[in-house]
Design a protein that fits this description.
Layout lengths: L4 E3 H14 L4 H7 L2 H8 L7 E3 H16 L4 H17 L12 H13 L2 E2 L2 E8 L2 E7 L6 H17 L6 E5 L7 E6 L2
Antiparallel strand pairs: 1-2, 1-3, 4-5, 5-7, 6-7
Helix pairs in contact: 1-4, 1-5, 4-5, 5-7, 6-7
C-alpha cells in the first residue's frame, strides 16, 4: 500500500487556521514542528504540490492538539476540518455553495475532498432528505486524525449549505484502512 499524500492546499488551510485562530502562538507552533515540516510551513507552500501526510499533516495536527486543545487530537482535527471547509467553500469552491442545497454539496463533496488526498477514495451512499453516509477507502497509514479532519469538513460544509443541527456518527468498518461516517441534520 502506498502512503497517503495531501495536496498543498491542505497545508495552507492548516497554516492559515493557526495564523487566524491562534496567531499569538503561530511562531511557537512553527518552531515546534519537525525541521522538514517547519521549513515547508514557514515558507511558500505549493498549493498544487503533494506532501507526505504523516510529517506534513498528522504531526502538525498533533502539535496543534497539544498546544491548543489539551492534547485532544479529535477536537483539534474536527476544528481544523471545519476551518478547511470554510477556507475551501468560501474560497476556491465557492460555486458549490451558490445553490446552498445539501443534495448538490453531497454530490460534489467526494470530488472536492478527493482533490486534497491521494490515493484516498471517497464515496457517499444511503442519501436521504436529512442524512447520508460517507466512506473513505485506501487510507494508509491509518489514523483517526484524517477521519476527524474529513468529518469536521463535512459537518461544516453541511452547515454552510443551511443544514441545522448537523450531527455525525462514526460507524464501524471491518477494514482498518477505511472509515465510514453518517451525517444527519434537522
Amino acid at each position: 500500500m502506498s502512503a497517503i499524500k495531501v495536496k498543498g492546499t491542505g497545508l495552507i488551510s492548516t497554516r492559515t487556521y493557526v495564523k487566524e485562530k491562534h496567531h499569538e502562538r503561530y511562531n511557537e507552533w512553527i518552531k515546534a514542528l519537525p525541521s522538514d515540516a517547519s521549513t515547508v510551513y514557514a515558507g511558500v507552500i505549493d498549493p498544487s504540490g503533494w506532501y507526505t501526510v504523516e510529517s506534513m499533516y498528522y504531526i502538525p495536527t498533533r502539535i496543534i492538539a497539544d498546544m491548543f486543545f489539551g492534547g485532544n487530537e479529535t477536537i483539534a482535527a474536527l476544528e481544523i476540518g471545519r476551518f478547511a471547509a470554510d477556507f475551501a467553500l468560501q474560497g476556491v469552491y465557492k460555486a458549490f455553495l451558490v445553490d446552498a442545497i445539501p443534495g448538490s454539496l453531497i454530490k460534489a463533496a467526494p470530488r472536492i475532498l478527493s482533490q486534497y488526498y491521494q490515493p484516498v477514495g471517497i464515496s457517499t451512499s444511503e442519501i436521504s432528505a436529512n442524512s447520508f453516509r460517507i466512506k473513505a477507502t485506501k487510507i494508509y497509514p491509518k489514523t483517526e486524525t484524517l477521519d476527524y479532519r474529513m468529518i469536521g469538513w463535512y459537518v461544516r460544509s453541511m452547515e454552510l449549505a443551511s443544514c441545522k443541527n448537523v450531527k455525525y456518527k462514526k460507524l464501524p468498518d471491518p477494514d482498518t484502512n477505511n472509515f465510514t461516517v453518517e451525517l444527519s441534520w434537522d
